[in-house]
Automatic annotation (TrEMBL):
It is an enzyme of class 1 (oxidoreductase). CDD domains: NAD_bind_Shikimate_DH. Residues 5-87 form the Shikimate dehydrogenase substrate binding N-terminal domain. The gene is aroE. Gene3D superfamilies: Leucine Dehydrogenase, chain A, domain 1 (3.40.50.10860), NAD(P)-binding Rossmann-like Domain (3.40.50.720). It catalyses: shikimate + NADP(+) = 3-dehydroshikimate + NADPH + H(+). Residues 233-262 form the SDH C-terminal domain. NADP(+) binds at residues 124-128, 210, 233. This is Shikimate dehydrogenase (NADP(+)).
């Protein structure tokens, strides 16, 4: 079978080597390529996929929303999130899914165990946050708190969450067992801005970031320095790929092989 990832730019994507590691581990002859499609050329996406004879593909920045009008069907959760990262091509029909949120949640639970009774705070209210929160709600009994700089961002949220401003959440930071940063703050290593005052966080809290390049954002570094347990976005990337593979083939991926390959490649770069 043939798969691929569509994005712009795309040369740095780790998806091809990660998926090929999985195909090899399973003894499959599948292919996975990276296709650079600029926003101007995105109107030709149907032709591009047909020419490349893909059975399924991932979609990354900046096309996760622009793909939606080209789909024949969309999963309810991808529709709710408003973003698609996985397309299944079935009998010439395109079906869109989003595996980013479930990828984060599965990775988190595999690593840290059940989140049934945890008090969880998610920072940011964009697409990534919505995806993670809607999946996480299925695995926890507590109401999830979501904090964003501007509260108007919650206007189109249909989820039953505790919505707060970043300013207000500062006073209750010590009440959370897990804190997840989904904002891009920290992507840029030269910026030392921390999104919340970390001295207010409880010592037993697990602090997560969905970013994995850099390996430790300044936010995670500062939390680690304070003695808190930290968790970056690498597992999220691996598990979203594994979930995409399951959608395309109905088979379970070999997570460990994928993870090792990505870790080694990141070390090499
Ligand atoms: O959602 C994923 C996407 O499936 C693949 C990807 C990549 O190849 O860098 C990144 C994320 O957007």
């Amino acid at each position: 079978m043939k798969f691929g990832v569509i994005g712009h730019p795309i040369s740095h994507s780790l998806s091809p080597i990660m998926h090929v590691a999985n195909f090899n581990a399973l003894g499959r002859n599948d292919q996975y390529s990276a296709l650079d499609v600029s926003p101007q050329d995105f109107q030709y996406i149907k032709e591009i996929i047909k020419e490349n004879e893909l059975n399924g593909f991932n979609i990354t920045i900046p096309h996760k929303e622009s793909i939606i009008p080209y789909l024949d069907e969309i999963s309810p959760s991808a529709e709710h999130i408003g973003a698609v990262n996985t397309v299944l091509v079935k009998d010439d029909k395109w079906i869109g899914y989003n595996t980013d949120g479930i990828g984060f949640v599965k990775g988190l639970i595999d690593k840290h165990g059940s989140i049934d009774n945890d008090n969880i705070l998610v920072l940011g209210a964009g697409g990534a946050s919505k995806g993670i929160v809607s999946e996480m709600m299925k695995f926890t009994n507590n109401k999830i708190t979501v904090a964003n700089r501007s509260i108007t961002r919650f206007d189109n949220w249909k989820l039953d969450v505790e919505a707060m401003s970043l300013t207000d959440v500062k006073d209750i930071l010590n009440t959370f067992d897990i804190i997840i940063n989904t904002t891009p703050v920290g992507m840029n290593e030269s910026s030392s801005e921390l999104i919340i005052p970390i001295e207010n966080i409880n010592k037993n809290t697990l602090v997560c970031d969905i970013i994995y390049i850099p390996n430790k954002t300044p936010f995670l570094q500062a939390c680690e320095k304070r003695g808190l347990a930290i968790y970056n976005g690498l597992d999220m990337f691996v598990y979203q790929g594994a979930e995409s593979f399951k959608i395309w083939t109905g088979k379970e991926a070999v997570i460990e092989e994928m993870k090792n390959k990505v870790k080694n490649e990141l070390k090499r770069r």
